[in-house]
Amino acid sequence: MGLSTHVLDTMHGCPAAGMAVALYTTHGDTATLVKRLVLNSDGRNPDGPLYDNASLVSGTYRLVFDVQGYFRDRGVSLPEPNFLNKVSLDFGVAHTDQHYHVPLLVSPWSYSTYRGS
After folding, report:
1. Closest to 51 (Cα-Cα) out of 1, 102, 114
2. What is the pTM for the complete model shown?
3. Is 47 exposed, middle or buried (0-12, 13-18, 19+ CB in 10 A)?
4. Has residue 112 got a pLDDT over 90?
5. Which residues contact 88 (CB under 8 A, 6 or more apart)?
6. Nearest-CA neighbor of 96 among 17, 11, 5, 1?
7. How many angstroms separate the CA atoms of 106 and 71, rounded?
8. What is the separation, in whole angstroms, between the first and last Cα of the chain?
9. DSSP 51-115
10. 19 near 70, Cβ under 8 Å?
11. Beta bridge partners of 36
């Protein structure tokens, strides 16, 4: 239970190891940084869930993924400015007794997300 994320690099067909991610709580137009992390070799938070079940509260959140930095670090030749810089996903948590998994499938030109399990 709790909140987790996972990023897959669809350009290279692998987890997005080394991508920087920031987690925020949001209230209207105000975002408060909760934590910054760098994804491990599996494209996940090396410390496990972003929030465990006991710490997750109902409300709104934002995950910000440094897509441009990740692909540039991988040696991908990107235009300036790149089509995607940071991907920001705003989402709500209504049921803290359920698991919220927020995966990101990403390339330098596209992304997709969904509520996973």
Report:
1. 1
2. 0.96
3. exposed
4. yes
5. 62, 63, 64, 65
6. 1
7. 10
8. 9
9. B-TTT--SEEEEEEEEHHHHHHHTT----SS-S-SEEEEEEEE--TTSEEEEEEEE-SS-EEE--
10. yes
11. 22
Side chain identity, residue 84: L
Two structure tokens written together for 36 = 């910054």
Burial class of 29 by CB neighbour count within 10 A (0 to 12, 13 to 18, 19+): exposed
15 exposed, middle or buried (CB, 10 Å; 0-12, 13-18, 19+)?
A: middle
Q: What is the pLDDT of residues 36-69, one digit of tens each?
A: 999 999 999 999 999 998 999 999 999 999 999 9
Distance from C-alpha of 87 to C-alpha of 90, rounded to nearest angstrom: 10
CATH fold label, 2-113? Immunoglobulin-like (2.60.40)
Residue spans per domain, the chain: 2-113
Q: Which two tokens stand for residue 107?
A: 């390339």
Closest CA to 25 of 66, 64, 68, 70: 64
Residue 101 — very low, low, confident or very high, per pLDDT cuts 50/70/90? very high
